[in-house]
Amino acid sequence: MSFIAKLSQAVTDVTIPSTTLDPVVNAGTSWLFDFTNPYCNTNPAGNLAAGSTFRNLVEGAADAVVVRPAGTTAIENLAALAGLRWNASSAFTNIDQVDLGSGYSFAPSTPFVIGVWLKQAADGNTAAYQPVARRTLTNANASQWIIDSGASGNNHRGNVGNLEGTSSTGPSPSAVQNLLARDVVHHVAFSYQPGANGVRLWHNGAEVSPIGPITGPAELRAEAATHILLALAGKGSIYRFWSERYALADRTAAQAVAQEWSLNTGRFV
């Protein structure tokens, strides 16, 4: 009889059976909501009522809840657990949102990576800088972090901020192929660590950060009172939303993104 007393590093071999609710979950995972997973999403198909909940696939971590701030655009829970869909374009503050609560504020200099799987509808709007996920109640310049649709409405970027300003990264101007085609599933992820090359962006598993260093602020803004909100103001679907403090898993942001991409590409339609 033998047993493993301690692992010296994070396990990334996808052939090893996982004892967690999802194979990407590790010691550094902050949250993971997979709206196609029957444990996470136990809601009936159709428009979700305010107060509907989603279970976090990180055991012991807080659930998420549907909130209706002031709007009329509900979230549709697609049949056969095919994801969440926003069926009309509207301002972020006028649509139902998935609220993760205020319990995930990152410590001031914590390296992290955040990713979302989404599909924008062909007939959705292309307004600039539409938030997809954020920890802020105002705009990017007052956020701890935000993922939005970029200047074109199809060129998603990550943004982190502090009291002195913000640092954002989007696809390189020469990388037009990284514009997010409509009616196609995409995985967008960005990471933060303090210092040079501290803010980086990935699209479908590949890094697409601009050429040259994007300096990450030495410390993030303190946003303890604000909630993390997830929605698709431009119309379309969201399938999965995750975050990892990758240093706690003894790996890099690139390794975390690569595992997420390799295990989930092709799953969503």
Can you describe this structure?
By secondary structure, the chain is mostly beta strands. The chain has a single domain, classed as Jelly Rolls, CATH 2.60.120.200. The protein is 4% helix and 30% strand. It has 1 helix and 17 strands. The strands form 2 sheets. Strands 1, 2, 5, 6, 8, 13, 14, 15 and 17 form a 9-stranded antiparallel β-sheet that branches. Strand 14 and strand 15 form a beta hairpin. It is globular. The N terminus is likely disordered.
Helix content bin: under 10%
Spans of at least 5 consecutive residues whose pLDDT stays below 50 are 1-12
Provide the CATH topology. Answer: Jelly Rolls
CATH classification class: Mainly Beta
Mean pLDDT: 85
| Net shape | globular
Give the CATH architecture.
Answer: Sandwich
Largest sheet: 9 strands, antiparallel
Q: What letter string, H or E per element, gives the SSE order?
A: EEEEEEEEEEEEEEEEEH
The N- to C-terminal Cα distance equals: 45 Å
Structural domain count: 1
Radius of gyration computed on alpha carbons: 18 Å
Query: From the helix content, strand content and strand pairing, which structural class follows?
Result: mainly beta
Number of strands: 17
DSSP helix count?
A: 1
Quote the beta fraction. 25-35%
